Amino acid sequence: MKKWKVFCYISIFTIASLMMSCVRESEMGNGFKKPSKEDLNRAISLYVQIAYKALENNEYERAMANVKQALDIDKNSPMALNALAVVFQSQGDTGKARETFKKALSNDANFSDAHLNYGQFLLQQKESEAACKQFQLAADDDFYQKRAIAYFYMGVCHKNNGDIAQSESALERCLGLDPANAQAMGMLASIKFEKHQYPEAKELFDKHVQAVRASKQVLSAEALWLGIQLERVFNKPDAEASWALFLKNNYPYSKEYLEYQKSLKK
């Protein structure tokens, strides 16, 4: 897998380099056809992809260098500015991140990627109401490939704001677009449990467990605590004990384990 990632990384970089060589040769009058707007946008997109892959490895300098390459082509590119804002956010420079997200959206108010990323930034800053508006704008784009993600984060925002009905609706829309979204299943299962809709909660919880295990991830403390409570409702002491042991072994200092211990004393 690592070799494949390296190959993809090198391939993207090579294509971007070749494309920009053509652009520079054209500017120098060496016989190449002047690059079209589409060619320039494609080069910007490639540099931005390299920047995001660098961020995945916490290579902030490499990410910034590639964003600069994109901005050198077009300093007002919403795609490049959005990437720059994400780099600033990753570095903890919240002031510059906010300013740059706004600049990206001022250049293209319909750029759904920027709405999604800005919403995630605002959610991180605990500005849930403002974040919800950004996620809604992204989700309203019928052709946006990340609509399911936008709806998921809308669910998170609305839940943070105490609007459980809107949260439930957004999470259901998310699962309608992406039935395998494990995070949405888990959060919706929790909401169903709180509404005493136990069969629905159990079905969603079981699907959440399957999806998490299929991705070779570990269940969260929150999910394990929900599993314990669901098994109690359905009077399954062996299953309850199994989830409790898992919680104790993996999250012994979590608030969920403390809640479990308190529940035993009632």
Number of strands: 0
Q: What is the H-and-E element order?
A: HHHHHHHHHHHHHH
Q: Helical element count?
A: 14
Might you state the CATH topology name of the largest domain?
A: Serine Threonine Protein Phosphatase 5, Tetratricopeptide repeat
The CATH class of the largest domain turns out to be Mainly Alpha
Major pleated sheet: none
| CATH superfamily heading of the largest domain | Tetratricopeptide repeat domain
pLDDT < 50 runs, ≥5 residues:
1-12
Mean pLDDT across all amino acids: 91
β-strand amount: under 5%
Distance between the termini: 49 Å
Q: How does the overall form come out from the CA principal axes?
A: elongated
Helix content: over 70%
Gyration radius, in Å: 23 Å
